[in-house]
Automatic annotation (TrEMBL):
Residues 4-85 form the HVO-A0261-like N-terminal domain. It comes from the Archaea. This is Uncharacterized protein. Pfam families: FilR1_middle, HVO_A0261_N. It comes from Haloarcula pellucida. Residues 120-249 form the Methanogenesis regulatory protein FilR1 middle domain.
Length: 261
């Protein structure tokens, strides 16, 4: 029955338009024809189908939605809006693992910054500028890569006393130690900076300030492909839970570890 209803609505966008018009107020076939610009025959055929399905009822020549009809209308609109949101965020979702993607509605008010042929560094530039100018007491991060640009943006915040928690996977921590052991030991020993080693590879990035989220999607070459920048409370809650889940599975890297490893 549900699959049949979904097929029925998907067969013609006129049906949802008619349902949404009836959700506003009852109407006669003539009213609906005039308001929607649909053919009288199509309107009458769809109204009859709605009535047969229990979605609408006729009274004194006018049609009105039943409770079931109103619920169907809202649910179908929500479904179509979710599909549209997924399509609009394809540059981000295309490079995120399925189990680490937020719900599309969490991104409704977020900004998408993608890498374009004429602006391949747009996501990086947006992130660096946003972090450097952020007003926050703390920053929490997951990162699958090492980036000097990111390091420089966060260094200023660290010097200003902003506490940092950074989660990297094991190989990335090892590369950071090997590339510059002295710098690595110094950074790990900075007050207010905490580094964690995650046991599994990380395939996406996440940064939280006090009230803002940056979700970062990387391509197969480790290049930042797209990011979502948002502050919706539901998005922030999802991101905070995600960060804490990864941090709690990680091992804290102390200053002594940095020197002796």
């Amino acid at each position: 029955m549900a699959a049949d209803a979904a097929r029925f609505l998907a067969d013609s966008p006129d049906r949802l338009a008619l349902l949404e018009r009836l959700a506003d107020e009852p109407g006669t076939p003539s009213d609906l024809d005039d308001d929607l610009g649909q053919s009288r025959r199509s309107v009458q055929r769809n109204l009859a189908a709605f009535a047969e399905r229990g979605w609408a009822r006729k009274h004194d020549g006018a049609y009105d939605l039943t409770t079931a009809g109103r619920l169907i209308t809202r649910r179908h609109r929500s479904y179509l809006d979710a599909l549209a949101a997924i399509e609009s965020w394809e540059p981000l979702f295309a490079h995120l693992p399925a189990d680490q993607a937020p719900r599309p509605e969490h991104l409704a008010d977020a900004t998408l910054v993608g890498s374009e042929p004429d602006q391949p560094q747009a996501p990086v530039s947006h992130y660096v500028e946003s972090i450097a100018s952020a007003s926050t007491d703390s920053i929490r991060m997951l990162s699958p890569v090492l980036s000097r640009l990111f390091h420089d943006a966060h260094a200023g915040q660290v010097l200003d006393g902003v506490t940092h928690e950074l989660v990297l996977d094991g190989p990335t921590v090892q590369r950071a130690r090997e590339q510059n052991p002295a710098e690595f030991a110094t950074v790990v020993g900075v007050p207010g900076f905490s580094l964690y080693r995650h046991p599994d590879p990380l395939s996406f990035g996440l940064t939280l300030t006090d009230d803002r989220v940056f979700l970062l999607a990387y391509d197969d070459q480790g290049q930042l492909h797209a990011l979502a920048d948002g502050s919706d409370p539901a998005f922030y809650e999802w991101a905070s839970t995600c960060f804490e889940r990864h941090r709690d599975r990680s091992e804290h890297v102390s200053g002594l570890d940095a020197i002796s490893s």
